[in-house]
Amino acid sequence: MAASTLFEKIWTSHVISDLGDGFALLHVDRHILHDLNAMKSLVELRERGYAVRNPELTIATPDHGVSTLPGRNIDTVPEGAALLRGYLEETRRAGIRSFDMNEDGQGIVHVIGPELGLTQPGTLFVCGDSHTCTHGGLGALGFGTGRSEVIHVLATQSIYQKKPKQMRINFNGTPGKGVTAKDLILYLIGQIGADGGNGHAVEYAGSAINAMSVEGRLTICNLSIEFGAKVGMIGPDDTAYDYLHGRRFSPAGANWDRAIAHWKTLPTDAGAKFDREIDVNVANVGPQITWGTSPQHVISVNDVVPDPATAGDAARRDAMNGALDYMGLTPGQPIAGTPIDWVFIGSCTNSRISDLREAGAIARGRKVKPGVSAWVVPGSQQVKQQAEAEGLHEVFKQAGFEWREPGCSMCLAANGELMPRGQRSVSTTNRNFEGRQGPGARTHLASPSMAAAAAIEGAITDVRKMMV
């Protein structure tokens, strides 16, 4: 039997019908809905005369449209109340399990999937959100879907897809001080560009990945979409199995033993072929910070803002000039020392307990710079409860951060949670597009520790100076 990749094994095992020309109809194991797509999709499905085929394989939670203000309720944001009430009505009508606002289990879809044990190795996991690639950190085949695809999955528990090419990215070596999973993936995007993964399913491998926690792996896979890949995956191993053991929806008893036996067959075989391979020496990577309006606009925190004159073609030069104009930066200026107005620690990229511990280690015993607004938004009720049990919320509040409720929040400027025009943030999110955190808002992507350091200094700074 020919050697196979992790992706190939999962894809092949889920093919219902080979439709030719690289297309296939695939069975969907897990489907997760959020508030922005659930109500409209379920209403349209019902109006077409269809029912949800397998409601037991679908989970829902409100995340995009909920306020994160402490003490929130369904009416905290009047403009969103109708959406949330419609979401509740339609998920209940369809018999879909929903983790509702303030309920244990509620949170950002790509945070609760892994922590509840819904995300498992070898499963095909979809959601109407582009960052569903996150779930590949546990060896799942996860990808985002469009509105029509959400309806198709609800009606048939299947999805029509074209098989992508395959790429493997090997992160080898030992990261330096202050270098996190977020820094590694931003560095990669800067090296290969925002279109470097177009048309590919990506597997991450190498000694640095093997040594990484599951939450770091989820961060790596989360940003796969930001360099054009629809799928990001990491082969399951003992680290993944230990993470999943005992979680709410994980197999138990004899089923756990059977699951482990299957999961151990999934990693890529020795000698399996990829269409493209890239090697990254992580020892060359420092703490990263974006300077422009794409995740590919990224440099080390001790570098200077690049000069568009050095760009290889006119289109890239024009894009860099436009980004610098929007961001209010000058070629050649050091990025460190750039004053900031906001810090946002949250999102499906960096709102897990390890992220909050990382930021808390920098915030502990220090104070947010006067004039800086700094928010910490846990990714789920479980993360919030764990952080509070550890006293992290008090660390943040004593430092001058706002401690808020779980949700997507300022990642996408939802529910009035946005920055004023022209203000500048350091954010742990995944996108720094124009207007992403509010019309005219300027966003610099970084790790949780880098964001916390910026809040303390009131400017972009090298977090390594604050690390003991």
Task: Provide structural commentary.
The protein has 468 residues and is an alpha/beta fold. The chain has two domains: 1-286, Aconitase, domain 3 (2-Layer Sandwich), CATH 3.30.499; 290-466, Aconitase, domain 3 (2-Layer Sandwich), CATH 3.30.499.10. It has helices at 6-13, 35-47, 78-94, 109-115, 147-156, 181-192, 207-210, 214-222, 238-244, 254-263, 314-327, 353-363, 381-389, 392-399, 448-457, and strands spanning 15-20, 23-27, 30-34, 58-61, 97-98, 124-127, 141-144, 158-162, 165-172, 200-205, 231-233, 276-281, 288-290, 298-300, 342-345, 373-376, 402-403, 424-427, 442-445. The chain is globular and about 55 Å long.
What is the CATH homologous superfamily assignment of the largest domain? Aconitase, domain 3
Global mean pLDDT? 97
Task: Characterize the main sheet.
Answer: 5 strands, parallel
- CA gyration radius, whole angstroms: 21 Å
Q: Number of folding domains?
A: 2
The CATH first-level class of the largest domain comes to Alpha Beta
Beta-strand percentage range: 15-25%
Report the total helices: 15
Return the structural class. Answer: alpha/beta
Separation of the first and last Cα atoms: 52 Å
